[in-house]
Q: What sequence folds into this?
């Protein structure tokens, strides 16, 4: 490909509205351009990189036995109403009416559509297992799209769905996809971890997220330095070793009321009472529909609302507003406590080990000292309700837990029968009995994977693409295009490398060498060949890897062979 006939509009300056490095570099390198909030055009080089990621995904999906299809982007409301997600999904679902006033949406995901297809076509256990996938444009009306294609409203996604007759088969399908995803992200040249995750709005019994490791990642993940345990912060369990411990006993101090004027926060109360946060219990009032309950966590801990939601089997739960808090406790926010509450009280395991602690007093400007479980209030259920924190042990082996950051690029779900039951996707087993199909769901953000690769692989000069997703594997930079020897050598090498099936960019622009070097680095091309009159006098050219700071001179007659060997080595290094 000749640069002069291609379209790579690079920029020197960093766009003011680009917050993270991948967004900045994708704009500067001419990979994308913004149309409107959260919606981007992929320019030719960006599309080449995107297609390379798609190709890797497609190859591994086909290798795993999945079958490609393509479903509509527009989905009728009736399907979403069958599963209850028409209302539950919220404002991210872009709804509209057609000319006949029928409600529809732009698909953010395709569980309903694929389940509708399968319930009309699959009727016997003999027709399963099946696994379908597509690579298609989705739309989610993000309230605050940001970070370029990392969190866009319109995006390219690979989504897949498995269908099995029995649980062991569904587990096998899940494992096949889990293994395929590991191959995909390894082939992309990424450093990543598969971590346990919450199933969120998709639903299901369990799931794993695939996280590209990056300091700029939005998601925090936890992994054990001793065993293979890994989870995102929402899902990470907290090790509690008190299952066999005897209940706290002994003398309890008498309950005492303490005036705490205008002191609502943990810091304010603990400073005033000269206690540590570990000696205080926070009482959080939450609601789910008409249900109101209290959750207790230690003063230095944070409530994990997702754990609480999953424990109670709720679709959603949120902190109650100040009006509800005052109705339930009799006090403004900041003074809630479990003593005397007439609602269900749940507590984190850490509360079991506490004695003579401080809580809110359910009166304005009042706290209680020397509060104790059982004597002063009852807990309906103890459970792991808090966010894991530095210093906590691995819940699996008790080893050291390490905290890092990552970017979610893939997610696999064991859906079970959530959608098949709701939509009547059933089959006849060998005894002629009607049974709901067991489903799995598997997604990869294609553009997000590309952006995550840039977040993980860049320097002050630009992108450093892993070679499998680089728009071009080699860039040829002739320094003096007006010199016939330089131009002819560059043209010959260009044609030769193209003949070997390599992705080559010939920078035939009549520009200063410095501009060409900067653009090559910005675009992140793995190999650069520089051809100039000085080196040609010695029958040599200059070879530089994007990952290295120094270049080397190589014999002109060996250039093609050396480049092919270097490229093979780069690919082999990530297998």
A:
């Amino acid at each position: 490909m000749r640069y002069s006939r291609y379209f790579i509009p690079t920029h020197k300056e960093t766009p003011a509205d680009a917050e993270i490095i991948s967004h900045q570099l994708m704009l500067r390198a001419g990979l994308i351009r913004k149309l409107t909030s959260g919606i981007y055009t992929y320019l030719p080089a960006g599309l080449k990189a995107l297609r390379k990621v798609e190709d890797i995904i497609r190859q591994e999906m086909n290798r795993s036995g999945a079958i490609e299809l393509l479903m509509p982007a527009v989905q009728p409301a009736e399907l979403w109403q069958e599963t209850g997600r028409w209302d539950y999904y919220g404002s991210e679902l872009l709804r509209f009416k057609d000319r006949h006033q029928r409600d529809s949406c732009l698909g953010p995901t395709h569980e309903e559509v694929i389940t509708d297809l399968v319930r009309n076509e699959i009727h016997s256990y003999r027709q399963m297992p099946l696994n379908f996938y597509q690579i298609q444009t989705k739309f989610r009306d993000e309230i605050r799209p940001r970070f370029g294609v990392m969190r866009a409203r319109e995006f390219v996604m690979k989504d897949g769905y498995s269908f099995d007759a029995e649980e062991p088969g569904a587990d096998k399908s899940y494992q096949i996809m889990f293994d395929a995803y590991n191959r995909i992200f390894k082939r992309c040249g990424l450093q990543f971890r598969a971590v346990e995750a919450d199933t969120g709005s998709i639903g299901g019994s369990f799931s794993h997220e695939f996280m590209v490791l990056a300091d700029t990642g939005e998601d925090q993940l936890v992994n054990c330095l001793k065993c293979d345990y890994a989870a995102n912060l929402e899902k990470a369990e907290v090790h509690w070793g008190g299952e066999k411990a005897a209940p706290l006993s002994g003398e309890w101090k008498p309950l005492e009321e303490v005036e705490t004027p205008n002191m609502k926060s943990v810091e304010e109360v603990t400073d005033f009472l000269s206690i540590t946060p570990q000696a205080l219990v926070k009482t959080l009032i939450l609601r789910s529909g008409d249900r109101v309950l209290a959750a207790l966590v230690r003063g230095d801990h944070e409530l994990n609302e997702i754990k609480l939601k999953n424990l109670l089997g709720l679709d959603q739960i949120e902190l109650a507003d100040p009006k509800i808090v005052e109705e339930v406790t009799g006090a403004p926010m900041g003074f809630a406590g479990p003593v005397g509450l007439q609602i269900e009280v749940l507590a984190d395991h850490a509360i079991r080990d506490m004695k003579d602690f401080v809580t809110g007093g359910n009166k304005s400007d009042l706290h209680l000292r020397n509060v104790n479980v059982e004597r002063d209030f009852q807990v309906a259920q103890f459970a792991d309700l808090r966010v894991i924190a530095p210093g906590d042990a691995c819940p699996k082996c008790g080893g050291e837990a390490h905290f890092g950051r990552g970017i979610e690029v893939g997610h696999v779900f064991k859906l079970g029968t959530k959608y098949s039951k709701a939509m009547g996707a059933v089959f006849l087993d060998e005894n002629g009995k009607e049974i709901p199909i067991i489903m799995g769901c598997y997604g990869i953000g294609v553009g997000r994977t590309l952006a995550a690769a840039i977040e993980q692989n860049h320097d002050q000069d630009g992108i450093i693409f892993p070679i499998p997703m680089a728009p071009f594997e080699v860039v040829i930079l002739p320094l003096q295009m007006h010199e016939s020897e330089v131009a002819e050598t560059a043209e010959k090498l260009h044609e030769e490398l193209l003949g070997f099936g390599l992705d080559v960019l010939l920078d035939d622009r009549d520009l200063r060498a410095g501009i060409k070097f900067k653009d090559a680095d910005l675009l992140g091309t793995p190999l650069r060949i520089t051809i100039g009159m000085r080196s040609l006098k010695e029958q040599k050219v200059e070879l530089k890897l994007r990952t290295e700071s120094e270049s080397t001179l190589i014999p002109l007659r060996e250039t093609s062979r050396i480049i092919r060997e270097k490229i093979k080595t780069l690919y082999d290094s990530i297998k």
Remarks:
- The chain has 15 helices and 31 strands.
